[in-house]
Amino acid sequence: MKHGIKLSLYVNYFVFAILLNSVGIVILKSQQVYGVDEVQASTLELFKDLPIAIVSFIVASFLPRLGYKKAMLSGLALVSLACLGMYLGNSFWSARLLFACVGISFALIKVSVYSVIGLVTDNSREHNSLMSSVEGVFMFGIALAYFLFPAFNDEAIPDSWLRVYPVLGAACIVSFLILLFTKFDEGHEIPGADLSEDFRQMLLLITQKLVLVFVISAFLFVMVEQGIMTWLPTFNDRVLKLPQNISIMMASILAVSLGLGRILAGQLTKKYNWFYVLSFCIAAAMVLVTFVLPQTVNATTSDIQSFADIPLIGFAFPLVGLFIAPIYPLLNSTVLSSLPKKLHSPMTGLIIIFSALGGTLGSRIVGWLFKNLGAEKAFYYTLIPMAVLFICLVLLRNLTAGLSPSESDNH
């Protein structure tokens, strides 16, 4: 039974990673095919992110009453229809509707997935491992998006890129069927006595020291990750002088390294305490920024036409993903496994909200640094949130030490 549930979680996350990460590609195609300008095209990001934040805030507290399985099935069904609508509609408004549906559905999926992980694992180490693996699969989905859309695109046929949507819709249907025929006990634990009490329980969570330190940690991590992911193509273009297409495809190296880092962390936490794994990861990431980044900035590059022409040092900095990757899922898992299962859903709502805030702010800060200090210096400032994040890890370790019985064997 648990294997079927886990398979469904993996497939759900993989498909949504592709759809969520395709927004940059669709922004580009919307300008080329639908004739919209940059400002109009950028609204697709808003149509995606705003529903994620709003729906997470609204539904997280009472999703246990609806049922996680029903919520995930609803999300998959909605996105299947949205993919079909994009293929048949073939308009900018179809794209806006697609990303609105993807945002709504991903909020349902993520809150449910994080809550279900708590139901299908028996202790904190299992929770850490499965959380890392699921998030790792998400990163591989992001990497695939960089290659999947071009595979269906034929520049001689303007609408050829739309052929990817029936494939993505079919993947949603497969995941829907896997989940539909998988039986599992949802626990039937609810935060409060009624909907208003459920919502109050979510808001009260933020007053706990453990949760407060955690949301600051999640905010700082996503600030670092999204800042690097969003601006790495620009760094490659301005500093390494790579052709634009290669600059974009090089970003897939970061996504793959993030995926590998999370999968590896999932295995390491079966043997080692999460605190030591994350302490090593933060230290290694800071070493890469301190010592590898300067060599990348000073690398001499000329006449690059393919990956083979890029000097090896050009591939080194994106490997920072290996070390920052485990931080997010292990932080989430550590806090969730320290809370009663009935609070996993509202806690996930807070995770999503603060992650979204951290991602948005991180991207804007790094963008400001790129503009005012230059691409060569901008990434050095990620050392500041990394250092604060390490302090938060120490605080989290102390705060969770007495909360989770399943952690007692780890100390």
In short:
This protein is mostly helical and 411 residues long. Helices cover 77% and strands 0% of the residues. The radius of gyration is 21 Å and the shape is globular.
CATH topology assignment: Growth Hormone, Chain: A
Total E-strand runs: 0
CATH architecture: Up-down Bundle
Helical residues, percent: over 70%
| Anisotropy-based shape | globular
Strand fraction band? under 5%
Q: What top-tier CATH class fits best?
A: Mainly Alpha
Alpha-carbon distance between the termini? 32 Å
SSE string: HHHHHHHHHHHHHHHHHH
How large is the count of helical segments? 18
Radius of gyration over alpha carbons? 21 Å
Mean pLDDT: 81
Low-pLDDT parts are 404-411
Question: Largest sheet, if any?
Answer: none
By CATH's scheme, which homologous superfamily applies?
A: MFS general substrate transporter like domains
Structural class estimated from helices and strands = mainly alpha
Please indicate the count of domains: 1
Task: Tell me what the structure shows.
The structure is a single chain. The chain is mainly α and 411 residues long. It has one domain: Up-down Bundle (Growth Hormone, Chain: A), CATH 1.20.1250. It is 77% helix and 0% strand. It has helices at residues 2-21, 23-33, 38-59, 63-66, 68-89, 92-120, 124-152, 164-180, 195-205, 209-238, 244-268, 274-297, 313-316, 320-324, 327-336, 344-373, 375-378, 383-400. Helix 1 (2-21) crosses helix 7 and helix 9 packs across helix 16 (344-373). The protein is globular and about 60 Å long. The protein starts with a helix and ends in an 11-residue tail after the last helix. Residues 404-411 have low confidence and may be disordered.
